[in-house]
Structures are given as structure tokens and as C-alpha cells.
Amino acid sequence: MLRKTWWPLVLTSLIADFRIIFDRDPAARNWLEVLFCYPGLQALVLHRFAHWLYVLGIPFIPRFISHIGRFLTGIEIHPGAVIGKGVFIDHGMGVVIGETAIVGDYTLIYQGVTLGGTGKQSGKRHPTVGENVVVGAGAKVLGNLLIGNNVRIGAGSVVLRDVPSDCTVVGVPGRIVYRSGVRVNPLEHGSLPDSEAEVIRALVDRIEMLEQQMQQIQQPQPVPVLQTVLAGKQELFIAQSDSGKEPQSDESIPPRCRIQDKAIQQFLDGAGI
Prior knowledge:
The chain has two domains: about 1-190, Hexapeptide repeat proteins (UDP N-Acetylglucosamine Acyltransferase, domain 1); about 195-270, no CATH class. About 40% of the residues lie in helices and about 15% in strands.
């Protein structure tokens, strides 16, 4: 029964894997080139066969097929990983997908990506990736995390926490940037936000504002003679008092540099709210 129901699903997934390449890679010229020159597709073909054997409970052979696929394509996918249909592994060299990882339909994975676990705990220890997710080159998603649908993970990011749907993650560690109401093409890598640049820009603007305030405070202002005499007597009286300091009004105290900018808060706590 399992054999009759499994193979149609495998065949449907392979057809979707083949067609998605023409949609997402402008370098794909013809079907012959895709079949023989795309290691991502070859790795998925071997994985789906190995996963079928893994589900049947056959020992050694699924892991050996995975090892052969790694040798031929440079892509290591554990036979226990669940890969959805229409998944495209572009270039593919150095991609590692762990045993309990789950990859949703129509996910785009670039070279050097790791969907790995942390520690030696048993059970579910690898990430679950939703549908229509883009994982940039060199990104690392570690642990039993939940990555929502339509998420974009920037190149080189290290994701260590769950990511809600329709978000973009950038940086090390990965910080979440919401893009509400904006649907971005998965191939538009240049549209990824730069949270570090936004925070640096906000800090530079704050420093410039504080410098202007300091310059205004340090500028000498003309003081009438009577006020000068009174000020001298007041300073003498304060010096003899116990406090030894003159109370300052709120207007004379320059505003402090408080971290109130939304970009700075997002950068520091990584919440993306």
C-alpha cells in the first residue's frame, strides 16, 4: 500500500523540482542541461529515493545513497529529512540538511546553507522551514526552529530563533525586519534591508545633534553687571552650604542620548517590532 501511494507523490515532487528551475534560474536553457548540469536537482532525485527507503525502514542503503549524492553533488541531505515539492537548491555546493529538518514547498536554497541542529539531543532537533522561503548563500539555521512562510533569510545570516511569516532576517545573529504588505521577488537580493547601516545612520544623526547642542551651550553669552555680582554672591553662599552644588533647572540640562529610535531598538533586541 505504501509503495502504491508513495511513488505518485515522488513523481509529482520531481516534476515540480524540474519545472521550478526554469522559473527561478534565467541561466537554464533546455531540459537536457537541467538534467545533467544542475547538482541541486540531482541531489533531490537521489534524496527522494533514499527517503523512500528510509521510510520503509531499510538500514544502511539510504545513508549510503546520501553519501553518494554528497560525493557527486557536494550537497548533503540526510535521508530522514522531509523535502517538499518544487524545492530549488541553486549551485548547491556545501548545503547541509539534517535528519529531522523539514523544508516546505517551493523553497529556494543557495550554496553553503546549513539547516543543522545544536547539541546531541534526540528527537526533533533541526529547523522546520515553511513554504516559499528563500535562504541566502552561507546562511545557517540552527536548532529546532520554526521558519514561517514567505520568509527571506539574508546571505551569511545565522538564525537562532523562530521567525514569523512574511519577514526578512539579516545579520549575525539574525535580526527580524518586518515588511508588511510588501511581496518581494525571491531573486531580488539587492532589496534586502541593512539593519546595521540603519542603526549606524541613526547613531550618527544623534551624535551630530548632540554636538550642535554642546556648541550652543559652550558659546559665551553677555551677562549684565548686576547679574554678575548677584551670581558671585550666590556662588559664595552655595560654596559655604552643605550641598556645595547649585540646583539646576530642567531647561539648563541638555537632553540625554536615549535609545528611542525604532531602528536602534530592533538592532539591539532583535525583536523586529
